[in-house]
Design a protein that fits this description.
four-stranded antiparallel sheet; binds guanosine-5'-triphosphate; globular; 4 strands; alpha+beta; binds magnesium ion
C-alpha cells in the first residue's frame, strides 16, 4: 500500500446535472480525500494539451468540444493507492459497461460524456496535476 495523489475532473455533463456532491461523496466515503479543488471552464488550448495523447483518435475534436462546453471541477485526490482506487470508483470508460454503484454507471451518459476523468498511472497523475495546480495549492492532508 502506498499513499498517492491522483488527478480527477468532474466533466461538463455531470456538472450540468448537479452531481458534484454525489460524486465527492463516493470519493470521501471510499477513503479518498479532496486535497485540492478548482471550478473552471477549460480553454480549447488547455483541453487539447490535457488530452494530447488522444490527438490522433477520431473522437479527439468531439472530446475537446465537450470538455470545453461548460465548467468542470478539477481535483487532487489523496489516499492509499489513490490512482487505482479512483479508477475503481469511476467504473469503466463506457457507462453502459460500468459496474453498478460506480460514478460512471450513475452519472455517465455515453462513452464521451462519461462524468469523470481519473489519471491512469503515477506518471500521468504527476503530469496532469502539474498542468492544473501549483504545488502549494495541494494540501498535505
Ligand atoms: P479518462 O479518465 O477520461 O482518461 O477516461 P479513460 O482513461 O477511462 O479512457 P481513455 O483515456 O481511453 O479515453 C479518454 C476519454 O476519451 C474518455 O474518458 C472519453 O471521454 C473519451 N472517449 C473514449 N472513447 C471515446 C469514443 O469512442 N467516443 C467519444 N466521443 N469519446 C471517447
Ligand atoms: Mg485516460
Amino acid at each position: 500500500m502506498s499513499m498517492e495523489t491522483t488527478f480527477s475532473i468532474i466533466k461538463p455533463n455531470a456538472m450540468k446535472k448537479n452531481a458534484i456532491g454525489g460524486i465527492i461523496n463516493k470519493f470521501e466515503s471510499q477513503g479518498l480525500k479532496i486535497a485540492a479543488a478548482k471550478l473552471t471552464q477549460l480553454s480549447k488550448e488547455k483541453a487539447e494539451e490535457f488530452y494530447s495523447e488522444h490527438k490522433e483518435r477520431p473522437f479527439f475534436g468531439e472530446l475537446v468540444t465537450f470538455m470545453t462546453s461548460a465548467p468542470v471541477m478539477l481535483m487532487a485526490l489523496h489516499g492509499e493507492n489513490a490512482i487505482s482506487k479512483n479508477r475503481e470508483i469511476m467504473g469503466a470508460t463506457n457507462p453502459s459497461e460500468a459496474a453498478a454503484g460506480t460514478i460512471r454507471a450513475e452519472y455517465g451518459d455515453n462513452v464521451g460524456e462519461n462524468a469523470v476523468h481519473g489519471s491512469d498511472s503515477p506518471e500521468s497523475a504527476q503530469r496532469e496535476l502539474n498542468l492544473f495546480f501549483e504545488k502549494n495549492e495541494i494540501c498535505n492532508c
